[in-house]
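Lab notebook, bench 4. Continuing the backlog of folding jobs that were queued last week. Each job is logged with the same field layout so the records can be merged later without manual cleanup. Today's entry covers Flagellar biosynthetic protein FlhB, a 361-residue chain. Filled in by technician R.K.

JOB TYPE: sequence-to-structure
TARGET: Flagellar biosynthetic protein FlhB
LENGTH: 361
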Amino acid sequence: MEFLKLDLQYFAADEKTEKATPKKREDTRKKGQVPKSQDVNTGFLLLLVFGILFLLGPSMKDTMTGMYEHAFRENMLRDVTENQVHTVFVEMTWEISKVIAPIMGVAIVAGVASNLLQVGVMFTGEPLKMDLKKLDPIQGAKKIFSARALVELVKSLLKISMVGVITFSIIWANKNHMMNASQKSVEAALSFFGTTTIIMGLASALALLILSVIDYTYQRYDHEKNIRMSKKDIKDEHKNIEGDPQIKSKIKEKQRQMSSARMMSEVPEADVVITNPTHYAIAIKYDEERSDAPIVVAKGVDFVAQKIKEIAKANDVMQVENRPLARAMYADSEVDQPIDEKFFKAVAEILAYVYRLEKKM
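JOB STATUS: finished
OUTPUT FIELD FOLLOWS
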């Protein structure tokens, strides 16, 4: 029964129930894993491209017809030489570029803007790295028959249905004009079919943008679900950030040892060591250049106190027994800091006593 309880606790701790931490989100972003809907890109692209066609359509038509007129009126009469072919090629390329450049420019702007709206500025090479797991047929089969694949299938069918219904409705509404197109001039027929195509494109783009809002919401939900963390993951992350407690304790121990060694090196320069005499030892030094008040250069209890007294004895540093003062100064004084004002009188008397003895000696 106890083993069963432990297993249940382990599985509960390992269950992905917690929201991702900021560090987890940053790590997944660096890997290129961000919520993103391709329908947003497609909708923006179609909307801007057909919008530019609607605005610049007449000038594009004039450019194309002018190019054909020039080709049949002048280019057909030129001699077929290398220079003439080169000249015709350059002229035709320039005229076609004037038509294509606005569309290409708008397409690039649409692609960049739609990605910036979704993921912001992000540069990462992680998705381009070679990953042999992607070649695993079992994992591939799991993706094909996963819930995400089913959602993508439903979404694709919905898009096809929406675009189909929109285009069919517009064509059906203009069926009479289409039937009469043969009775119109070429220019009028081209204008009608161009306008109808642009209307279908804009309507389809708006429908895709509406659908993309739903898709992006789902992508965010799915992304949040995939990056969820277990309580164990959060604890492990916290350990990695803050450091393992055992390692931290070893570092602190090492720092204490270094601090103690540095403190002991100051004892030979002390003026006096105030003792308990068995449990406490406080080494005091008065240096007018460092401070107006005496400074505690070392302090310790038990083993450290004995070590301070041994070093003081070896270096002929005077030791004075004052039990209450030693206890009080150990509690209220810090190493490398001036003593508290309340100890001035007592310490001054001890230093005066020490200086008198040293002068007699």
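OBSERVATION: Residues 34-120+135-226 form one domain.
SIGNED: R.K.
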